[in-house]
Amino acid sequence: MELAQLDAFITAADCGSFSRAAEMLNVAQPSLSNRIQSLEREVGQALFERMGRGVKLTDAGRAFLPYAQRINRTLQDGLLVLDGTREGTAGRLSIGTAPAVGTYVLPRVLKVFCDNRGGVDVLVRTGHSDEVLQMVLDDDVQVGFSRPINHPDVRTIVLYQDELVLVVSSDHRYAKRGTVKVEELADDSLILFDRDSGYYGMILSLFRDLGVVPHQQMHLDSIEATKKMVEQNLGIALLPEVAVEREIRLGTLHKVHIQSAEPVKRDIAVMYRRNKPQSGPMAAFLELLGEMYGQRLPK
Q1: CB under 8 Å to 15, separation ≥6 — which residues?
Q2: Which CATH number fits domain 90-160+267-293: 3.40.30.10, 2.40.110.10, 3.40.50.720, 3.40.190.10?
Q3: Quick one: average pLDDT of 247-260?
Q4: Does domain 3-87 have CATH number 3.40.50.2000?
Q5: What is the pLDDT of residues 94-110, one digit of tens each?
Protein backbone atom coordinates (compact mmCIF):
# COMPACT_ATOMS: atom_id res chain seq x y z
CA MET A 1 0.00 0.00 0.00
CA GLU A 2 1.43 3.37 -1.04
CA LEU A 3 0.80 6.81 0.39
CA ALA A 4 -0.14 8.05 -3.08
CA GLN A 5 -2.99 5.51 -3.09
CA LEU A 6 -4.28 6.80 0.24
CA ASP A 7 -4.04 10.42 -0.95
CA ALA A 8 -6.05 9.54 -4.03
CA PHE A 9 -8.66 7.69 -1.95
CA ILE A 10 -9.07 10.49 0.64
CA THR A 11 -9.21 13.27 -1.98
CA ALA A 12 -11.73 11.41 -4.14
CA ALA A 13 -13.89 10.75 -1.08
CA ASP A 14 -13.84 14.48 -0.26
CA CYS A 15 -14.58 15.58 -3.84
CA GLY A 16 -17.04 12.87 -4.85
CA SER A 17 -15.34 12.86 -8.22
CA PHE A 18 -12.22 11.25 -9.66
CA SER A 19 -11.73 14.10 -12.14
CA ARG A 20 -11.87 16.85 -9.47
CA ALA A 21 -9.60 14.78 -7.19
CA ALA A 22 -7.10 14.42 -10.03
CA GLU A 23 -7.11 18.19 -10.52
CA MET A 24 -6.49 18.80 -6.83
CA LEU A 25 -3.59 16.35 -6.76
CA ASN A 26 -2.27 17.63 -10.09
CA VAL A 27 -2.23 14.20 -11.71
CA ALA A 28 -3.96 12.78 -14.77
CA GLN A 29 -7.34 11.19 -14.08
CA PRO A 30 -6.30 7.75 -15.43
CA SER A 31 -3.36 7.80 -13.01
CA LEU A 32 -5.62 8.61 -10.07
CA SER A 33 -8.11 5.89 -11.12
CA ASN A 34 -5.25 3.37 -11.29
CA ARG A 35 -4.12 4.28 -7.78
CA ILE A 36 -7.60 3.74 -6.37
CA GLN A 37 -8.08 0.48 -8.28
CA SER A 38 -4.72 -0.76 -6.96
CA LEU A 39 -5.81 0.13 -3.43
CA GLU A 40 -9.10 -1.70 -3.88
CA ARG A 41 -7.25 -4.80 -5.07
CA GLU A 42 -4.99 -4.66 -2.02
CA VAL A 43 -7.85 -4.35 0.49
CA GLY A 44 -9.94 -6.86 -1.46
CA GLN A 45 -13.08 -4.73 -1.64
CA ALA A 46 -14.58 -1.92 -3.71
CA LEU A 47 -14.22 1.40 -1.95
CA PHE A 48 -16.27 3.51 -4.38
CA GLU A 49 -19.46 3.16 -6.31
CA ARG A 50 -18.92 4.58 -9.81
CA MET A 51 -22.00 6.58 -10.86
CA GLY A 52 -21.32 8.07 -14.26
CA ARG A 53 -20.30 11.65 -13.49
CA GLY A 54 -19.38 11.06 -9.84
CA VAL A 55 -18.47 8.52 -7.18
CA LYS A 56 -19.55 7.78 -3.64
CA LEU A 57 -18.09 5.61 -0.92
CA THR A 58 -19.24 2.06 -0.42
CA ASP A 59 -19.86 0.76 3.11
CA ALA A 60 -16.30 -0.57 3.06
CA GLY A 61 -15.00 2.81 1.85
CA ARG A 62 -16.81 4.66 4.66
CA ALA A 63 -15.40 2.23 7.22
CA PHE A 64 -11.86 2.57 5.85
CA LEU A 65 -11.85 6.38 5.38
CA PRO A 66 -11.17 7.47 9.02
CA TYR A 67 -8.19 5.11 9.22
CA ALA A 68 -6.75 6.44 5.98
CA GLN A 69 -7.25 9.98 7.26
CA ARG A 70 -5.53 9.08 10.52
CA ILE A 71 -2.52 7.73 8.60
CA ASN A 72 -2.37 10.93 6.58
CA ARG A 73 -2.60 13.13 9.68
CA THR A 74 0.14 11.11 11.39
CA LEU A 75 2.38 11.56 8.37
CA GLN A 76 1.72 15.31 8.28
CA ASP A 77 2.43 15.55 12.01
CA GLY A 78 5.71 13.72 11.42
CA LEU A 79 6.66 16.11 8.63
CA LEU A 80 5.93 19.06 10.91
CA VAL A 81 8.20 17.56 13.55
CA LEU A 82 10.93 17.18 10.94
CA ASP A 83 10.48 20.83 10.02
CA GLY A 84 10.80 21.67 13.70
CA THR A 85 14.00 19.68 14.12
CA ARG A 86 15.47 21.49 11.13
CA GLU A 87 14.41 24.91 12.44
CA GLY A 88 15.33 24.10 16.05
CA THR A 89 11.78 24.36 17.43
CA ALA A 90 11.37 20.62 18.01
CA GLY A 91 13.51 17.59 18.63
CA ARG A 92 16.04 16.89 21.36
CA LEU A 93 19.02 18.69 22.88
CA SER A 94 21.39 16.70 25.10
CA ILE A 95 23.90 18.50 27.31
CA GLY A 96 26.75 17.31 29.51
CA THR A 97 27.97 19.66 32.20
CA ALA A 98 30.24 20.03 35.17
CA PRO A 99 28.14 20.26 38.36
CA ALA A 100 28.79 23.95 39.12
CA VAL A 101 27.93 25.04 35.58
CA GLY A 102 24.85 22.83 35.51
CA THR A 103 23.57 24.20 38.81
CA TYR A 104 24.39 27.91 38.63
CA VAL A 105 24.89 28.89 34.98
CA LEU A 106 23.01 26.51 32.70
CA PRO A 107 19.51 27.21 34.14
CA ARG A 108 19.73 30.85 33.02
CA VAL A 109 20.81 29.85 29.54
CA LEU A 110 18.12 27.19 29.22
CA LYS A 111 15.45 29.62 30.43
CA VAL A 112 16.14 31.83 27.42
CA PHE A 113 16.43 28.83 25.09
CA CYS A 114 13.23 27.10 26.25
CA ASP A 115 11.21 30.33 26.17
CA ASN A 116 11.82 30.40 22.41
CA ARG A 117 12.14 26.66 21.71
CA GLY A 118 9.44 25.15 23.89
CA GLY A 119 9.02 22.12 21.63
CA VAL A 120 12.58 20.89 22.23
CA ASP A 121 13.14 18.13 24.79
CA VAL A 122 16.26 18.88 26.87
CA LEU A 123 18.37 16.22 28.58
CA VAL A 124 21.13 17.26 31.01
CA ARG A 125 23.80 14.94 32.41
CA THR A 126 26.46 15.96 34.93
CA GLY A 127 30.02 14.82 35.47
CA HIS A 128 33.52 16.10 36.04
CA SER A 129 35.37 17.68 33.13
CA ASP A 130 37.01 14.47 31.87
CA GLU A 131 33.65 12.72 32.01
CA VAL A 132 31.93 15.52 30.10
CA LEU A 133 34.55 15.29 27.35
CA GLN A 134 33.97 11.55 27.09
CA MET A 135 30.21 12.09 26.85
CA VAL A 136 30.82 14.37 23.86
CA LEU A 137 33.23 11.91 22.22
CA ASP A 138 30.80 9.00 22.74
CA ASP A 139 27.90 11.06 21.31
CA ASP A 140 26.04 10.61 24.60
CA VAL A 141 25.55 14.39 24.55
CA GLN A 142 25.68 16.98 21.79
CA VAL A 143 27.19 19.81 23.84
CA GLY A 144 29.42 19.83 26.93
CA PHE A 145 30.38 22.48 29.50
CA SER A 146 33.54 22.13 31.60
CA ARG A 147 37.06 23.42 32.00
CA PRO A 148 38.79 23.49 28.59
CA ILE A 149 40.20 20.14 27.49
CA ASN A 150 41.76 19.95 24.04
CA HIS A 151 40.99 16.97 21.81
CA PRO A 152 41.44 16.73 18.03
CA ASP A 153 37.85 15.59 17.49
CA VAL A 154 36.26 18.29 19.65
CA ARG A 155 35.85 22.04 19.33
CA THR A 156 36.62 23.69 22.67
CA ILE A 157 35.69 27.37 22.99
CA VAL A 158 36.08 29.37 26.22
CA LEU A 159 32.88 31.21 27.18
CA TYR A 160 33.72 32.90 30.48
CA GLN A 161 35.96 32.83 33.55
CA ASP A 162 34.86 31.39 36.87
CA GLU A 163 36.46 33.00 39.96
CA LEU A 164 36.85 31.39 43.36
CA VAL A 165 36.00 33.74 46.23
CA LEU A 166 36.41 33.41 49.99
CA VAL A 167 33.07 33.47 51.80
CA VAL A 168 32.20 33.57 55.49
CA SER A 169 28.99 33.67 57.50
CA SER A 170 27.35 36.93 58.56
CA ASP A 171 28.50 36.17 62.14
CA HIS A 172 32.15 35.68 61.25
CA ARG A 173 34.68 38.26 62.37
CA TYR A 174 35.79 38.84 58.76
CA ALA A 175 32.29 39.67 57.56
CA LYS A 176 32.29 43.36 58.51
CA ARG A 177 35.95 43.87 57.67
CA GLY A 178 35.64 42.51 54.16
CA THR A 179 39.35 41.67 54.03
CA VAL A 180 41.69 39.22 55.73
CA LYS A 181 45.45 38.95 56.00
CA VAL A 182 47.05 35.81 54.64
CA GLU A 183 48.51 34.78 57.99
CA GLU A 184 45.10 34.97 59.66
CA LEU A 185 43.73 32.20 57.47
CA ALA A 186 45.74 29.57 59.34
CA ASP A 187 43.52 30.16 62.39
CA ASP A 188 40.29 29.31 60.55
CA SER A 189 38.65 26.03 59.68
CA LEU A 190 38.58 25.58 55.91
CA ILE A 191 35.67 23.63 54.43
CA LEU A 192 36.60 21.85 51.22
CA PHE A 193 34.32 20.23 48.67
CA ASP A 194 34.49 17.57 45.97
CA ARG A 195 37.99 16.08 45.98
CA ASP A 196 37.52 14.91 42.37
CA SER A 197 36.83 18.36 40.95
CA GLY A 198 39.34 20.84 39.59
CA TYR A 199 38.30 23.31 42.30
CA TYR A 200 39.84 21.13 45.01
CA GLY A 201 43.31 21.33 43.52
CA MET A 202 42.94 25.07 42.81
CA ILE A 203 42.11 25.79 46.45
CA LEU A 204 45.00 23.79 47.84
CA SER A 205 47.37 25.39 45.32
CA LEU A 206 46.27 28.85 46.43
CA PHE A 207 47.04 28.16 50.08
CA ARG A 208 50.33 26.53 49.14
CA ASP A 209 51.30 29.62 47.12
CA LEU A 210 50.33 31.83 50.06
CA GLY A 211 52.46 29.76 52.41
CA VAL A 212 49.51 28.90 54.63
CA VAL A 213 48.52 25.49 55.95
CA PRO A 214 44.80 25.76 56.71
CA HIS A 215 42.98 23.64 59.23
CA GLN A 216 40.72 21.39 57.12
CA GLN A 217 37.80 20.56 59.35
CA MET A 218 35.29 19.32 56.79
CA HIS A 219 35.31 17.66 53.38
CA LEU A 220 31.96 17.71 51.59
CA ASP A 221 30.75 16.42 48.26
CA SER A 222 28.74 19.41 47.04
CA ILE A 223 28.85 23.18 46.81
CA GLU A 224 25.35 23.52 48.22
CA ALA A 225 26.26 21.57 51.37
CA THR A 226 29.42 23.65 51.74
CA LYS A 227 27.42 26.89 51.58
CA LYS A 228 25.08 25.68 54.30
CA MET A 229 27.99 24.80 56.59
CA VAL A 230 29.56 28.22 56.08
CA GLU A 231 26.23 29.93 56.77
CA GLN A 232 26.17 28.13 60.13
CA ASN A 233 29.65 29.55 60.87
CA LEU A 234 31.25 26.11 60.91
CA GLY A 235 34.15 27.32 58.81
CA ILE A 236 35.15 29.38 55.77
CA ALA A 237 35.27 28.27 52.15
CA LEU A 238 36.50 29.22 48.72
CA LEU A 239 33.62 28.77 46.31
CA PRO A 240 32.84 29.72 42.69
CA GLU A 241 31.48 33.26 42.75
CA VAL A 242 28.60 32.30 40.49
CA ALA A 243 27.52 29.77 43.14
CA VAL A 244 27.27 32.30 45.97
CA GLU A 245 25.86 35.36 44.20
CA ARG A 246 22.40 34.84 45.69
CA GLU A 247 23.62 34.29 49.26
CA ILE A 248 25.90 37.34 49.07
CA ARG A 249 22.98 39.41 47.81
CA LEU A 250 20.77 38.16 50.67
CA GLY A 251 23.49 38.69 53.26
CA THR A 252 23.71 35.10 54.51
CA LEU A 253 27.26 34.87 53.14
CA HIS A 254 29.89 37.59 52.88
CA LYS A 255 32.65 37.83 50.32
CA VAL A 256 36.07 38.50 51.84
CA HIS A 257 39.15 39.69 49.97
CA ILE A 258 42.44 37.95 50.79
CA GLN A 259 45.14 40.60 50.98
CA SER A 260 48.15 40.06 48.68
CA ALA A 261 46.44 37.15 46.91
CA GLU A 262 45.90 37.07 43.17
CA PRO A 263 42.37 36.17 42.00
CA VAL A 264 41.92 32.46 41.40
CA LYS A 265 40.11 31.98 38.10
CA ARG A 266 39.56 29.21 35.61
CA ASP A 267 38.10 29.15 32.12
CA ILE A 268 34.77 27.50 31.41
CA ALA A 269 34.33 26.24 27.87
CA VAL A 270 31.72 24.73 25.61
CA MET A 271 32.69 21.54 23.75
CA TYR A 272 31.11 19.79 20.78
CA ARG A 273 32.19 17.39 18.04
CA ARG A 274 34.00 18.68 14.98
CA ASN A 275 32.76 17.90 11.48
CA LYS A 276 29.50 16.42 12.72
CA PRO A 277 26.10 17.49 11.35
CA GLN A 278 24.24 19.61 13.88
CA SER A 279 20.56 19.18 14.57
CA GLY A 280 18.31 22.23 14.50
CA PRO A 281 18.08 22.43 18.32
CA MET A 282 21.86 22.13 18.73
CA ALA A 283 22.56 24.80 16.11
CA ALA A 284 20.02 27.11 17.76
CA PHE A 285 21.55 26.48 21.19
CA LEU A 286 25.07 27.25 19.98
CA GLU A 287 23.80 30.41 18.31
CA LEU A 288 22.24 31.50 21.61
CA LEU A 289 25.49 30.82 23.49
CA GLY A 290 27.39 32.90 20.98
CA GLU A 291 24.98 35.80 21.47
CA MET A 292 25.04 35.58 25.28
CA TYR A 293 28.81 35.33 25.62
CA GLY A 294 29.93 37.33 22.61
CA GLN A 295 31.67 34.39 21.00
CA ARG A 296 31.68 32.95 17.51
CA LEU A 297 30.86 29.25 17.68
CA PRO A 298 31.72 27.65 14.32
CA LYS A 299 29.82 24.66 13.01
Answers
A1: 21, 24
A2: 3.40.190.10
A3: 94
A4: no
A5: 999 999 999 999 999 99
